[in-house]
Amino acid sequence: MKHSSVLYFAICICLLAGSACNQFSAEKSTAQAKFTKNTTVEIPELLDRPEALRYGTEWDAVQNMYGAQVAALRQDPSKLEAYLKLAEVFIQEARITGEHPHYYPAALQVLEPVVKNLETVENPDIQQKDLLFRALSHVASVQLSLHDFGAAKTTAEQAVAINPYNAFIYGCLVDANVELGNYSRAVEYCDKMVSTRPDLRSYSRVSYLREIYGDVPGAIEAMDMAVKAGYPGYEQTEWARLQLGHLYERYGKLQDAENQYRMCLAVRDNYPFALAGLAGLEEKRGKHREAEVLLKQAAAIIPEVGFYIDLAKIYQKTGRTAEANTLIKQVEEMLAEDLAAGHNMRMEIARFHLNLTHDYDKALEYAEAEYLNRPQNKDANQLMAAVLLARGDKQKAAQYLKKALATGCKDPELIALQKVLS
User: Fold this and answer.
1) What pLDDT, on a 0 to 100 scale, did the predictor assign at position 237?
2) Is residue 160 situated within a structural domain?
3) Looking at the structure, do residues 114 and 9 belong to the same domain, yes or no?
């Protein structure tokens, strides 16, 4: 299970004069923000990584980075750079360890004093602008991870107004607009991103957009370019390779998918998402036992809710009802923990009820809430169509399916839904 412990340090926090509760006054300044003394600040804990996720000296480097920033803040709490570096550590650890309920709130917590200090500065210098830009970029990144897409779009727009020459922030704007269903706008931002910096991050977004618009060969080509632009073994590179494997798998090229998953594991030992990828292939081949073993390996490394959902599906398929029900309760607890930590899991909960509990009323409740939050998004419309079909309302399902098909996406699940409703 995931943790949420916090390590407390009593140090001075960079607050505007007169603030005693982490709230900044409205008065603007032309200089670096002033600070109060003897204010208690909570520095979130760096959770210990499981042995399988330490990857040689990588974990040592992370611990050293964390310790150096904490030490810097103890010595000089006005070092905003240290807060940014802590946020970077927390964001990366969330990706690697799956401890989202701990690390995403932790990242936002250490970014808050940076933003609050700098957004009130009337005539910021170049360094202050850069610090604020980086802080807003990280906030937008976390908001995307928490599925707060509207807020992420707003934050990223604030950041790009400060620095319109940074590829990372255009990536945030691509992601936010894709998730909100603003696909043409996402393409515009993606073009800016690629022209600013053609690299792993920009090529991967080209791939996502090409798939949305039905260009599967182009999507595979772009994701392959993303993988080749990265350094083998780095988490970002292997995540891109994993996505390439998913593309192959989604469109029926199972051996090509397996090759990518195995390559992930060859250069990044025990990469849990690659283990889960192999499990999915074994499941497609009807090898339930092999799939179960791989999923249990993955789940033992990180507490990723998707691994437990896939395990529960195997238990249901193989008639192990009691084990499935026990795991379903565990999944419900994990989803509730994510929600409590500010992670929007409505779509995941809707799919959980659609495919596992078969509580179609609950599935509709969550799917509809997510649809209302982003009514132009292809996936939100596809989910609504699937839930309504399960409830026997084909007429309404067809209305949502029409919107899901609007971009020309050729996802096999979407096409299968189209065939059922045609």
Assistant:
1) 98
2) no
3) yes
